[in-house]
Amino acid sequence: MPATPRPASQRWVAADWKDLPGWGGDDLLAAWPALLASCQRPAPGWAEFCARAALQAPADPLEATLFLMKHLRPWRLQGEGGETTGLLTGYFEPQLAASRTRQGAFQWALHALPADAALRRTPRRDIDTHPRFTALELAYVDDPFALLQIQIQGSGRLVVRDAAGAERISRVAYAGHNDQPFQSVARVLLDRGEVGDATPRTLSDWARRNPAKVRDALAVNPRVVYFREEPLPDVNQGPRGAQGVPLTPGRSVAIDRSYIALGTPLWLDSTAPLSTTPLRRLVLAQDTGSAIQGAVRADLFWGWGEDAALQAGRTKQALRLWALWPDGFTPKP
Q1: 3-class DSSP state for residue 316?
Q2: 186 vs 8, which has greater pLDDT?
């Protein structure tokens, strides 16, 4: 039986601006576009602040800092037992080379969501040989573990080269899954001694060396994520998170909605990946995820491509969080 959530007043503790480590040292102008994006879908109590933020674009980081201090109030987030330290992880948007036809190494299909509910529940092992899935194949990638990664992340970019050699980039966004349980393929390969670590490069290298074993390995995880393809008019814009606004690299986080409302500005106090260098910045709660549980818990969106994947894979640090809420309003999850 799940624990009864504590009242918001016991998870949000009133704080002072001087309590926020590094406050005043962040370039808040870099965070302003993400803040305004959240204001496109303001939560109750935010309308006045968002109207002011849209009208009064700050001229420099100091003006932005003073604006927030004038109109918002900080609250320290703590867990059910009063703990103030939690966990920061990272995620990213994969970017994969793809083909519109199954050819050469491009053998691994991304599928659209079946309209038939019964067909939708087909386990992974049976999808590639099921004739009704042929018409649902959106594109093909050349790396089965990159395909798994894009399914775990829930969205990604496809880079398709046309006959003339020009690259066209589109986005595939989460459309649903097959209601099967998730099992970690990497965990099974580690337990069997097939790989020494679970980094994307190691897993992809294993697949290239063991083509005959790949389909059986993938079948360990019966869950399949289905996608819808979308145009990508601006390649510098991230996917839409749970709030319905585009995610901003380094400024958007996924949170647990039972503790933090989508759109809430948060002051993040952690360290850079694999480093003791402080990572202290303003971020926006613009996404959520089933693995993100607890009041002091955040998943930082790093962006897309190889560098973002590397940073996301390295992010697993201690975290403290403060929520910023309009002055005069009681915060609500």
Answers
A1: strand
A2: 186
